[in-house]
Specification:
This is Transforming growth factor beta regulator 1. This protein is α+β, with helices and mostly antiparallel strands. Helix content is about 40%, strand content about 15%.
């Protein structure tokens, strides 16, 4: 039989051997995970590189499409016949050239210089093509009036969401309660400003006494609603409900359909297009009566609150 010290040493040896095997197994698992992680990182890097190449190709194809697209929307017929140079007869040089003395005919040279300057002024200036949707007359729909649909930017995902597109240069107005006197109406100017990879949103009143700029429509809209709530003496009497896009008019069906007509909208991955005018019309009409975006809805909400008291 083994004595107590030998038994104690044997138990210690067994325990240490067991822990060593567990440590080796854990080290092997960690090493495998490190290699797997490195392989995943390499795969992500290669996928991102492919995505950049595809985006550049999409840009190039969009530019080519715009070049072959007529302003009326009709397809342009391209002549594929090889171009042949037309032989133009050379003008015969006039041998009877009169030599004019500068000293004796100064007025002749002055008149020639004047004619050259006038011809340069009369040349029409070449106009650059703009691919933004410009409106000749403002389009009004309820409390929203759209003046410019702007230009769709699909390079970064910050210029669109699943239910709205934020085109750079978009400009619209909305009639809502004044931030200092809720019983009077105020026209708020809503703009989407192109600022690099992320857009800037702006709300400004007609008299330019109120102006807020933010990184999202909800940020600007919630700031306006907070001012109205402070004037009413309650912080959360009128909730904003995340209606920033709706306040700007970007979720209105006619705005979404107009932006979807542009070829750049097809490259806005993640945006769910609106199929028809009547698809989202009823829900938008109900949402337009929300007290955070409608003057009439705000006063109806206040009347209900007073009647409860």
């Amino acid at each position: 039989m083994m004595n107590k010290p030998m038994l104690h040493n044997y138990n210690r040896f067994v325990r240490s051997h067991r822990y060593k095997t567990k440590c080796k197994e854990i080290e092997r698992i960690i090493t495998d995970n490190v290699f797997v992680n490195a392989a995943v990182c390499d795969e992500i890097a290669s996928t991102q590189e492919k995505l950049l190449i595809v985006r550049e190709e999409c840009k190039f194809l969009t530019k080519k499409l715009k070049q072959f697209e007529s302003p009326s929307g009709l397809p342009v017929q391209i002549d594929t016949t090889p171009a042949t140079k037309k032989s133009t007869p050379r003008k015969k040089s006039n041998t009877n050239v009169k030599i004019i003395d500068f000293k004796d005919n100064k007025d002749v040279f002055k008149d020639a210089n004047k004619q050259i300057i006038e011809n340069k002024k009369k040349r029409p200036a070449t106009k650059r093509k703009k691919y933004a949707v410009e409106i000749q007359e403002p389009i009004a729909n309820g409390n929203v009036t759209v003046y410019n649909f702007g230009q769709i930017i699909y390079d970064t995902p910050f210029y669109y969401s699943d239910c709205a597109i934020y085109p750079g240069g978009y400009y619209a107005t909305r009639t809502y309660a004044h931030f200092r006197n809720i019983f009077s109406k105020c026209t708020y100017h809503c703009k989407v400003i192109r600022a690099g990879s992320t857009p800037r949103f702006e709300i400004m009143d007609h008299d330019k006494h109120f102006k807020v700029t933010g990184l999202s429509t909800d940020e600007c809209h919630s700031h306006l609603i907070s001012l109205i709530n402070k004037m009413l003496g309650a912080e959360d009497l009128i909730p904003s409900n995340g209606n920033g896009d709706r306040f700007f008019g970007l979720t209105l069906p006619f705005v979404r359909l107009k932006l979807q007509e542009k070829p750049e909208s097809k490259f806005c991955t993640g945006y769910i297009p609106l199929r028809s005018q009547m698809e989202n019309n009823e829900s938008e009409l109900k949402a337009e009566n929300d007290p955070s975006i409608s003057f009439e809805g705000l006063h109806a909400c206040l009347n209900r609150f007073r009647s409860r008291r």
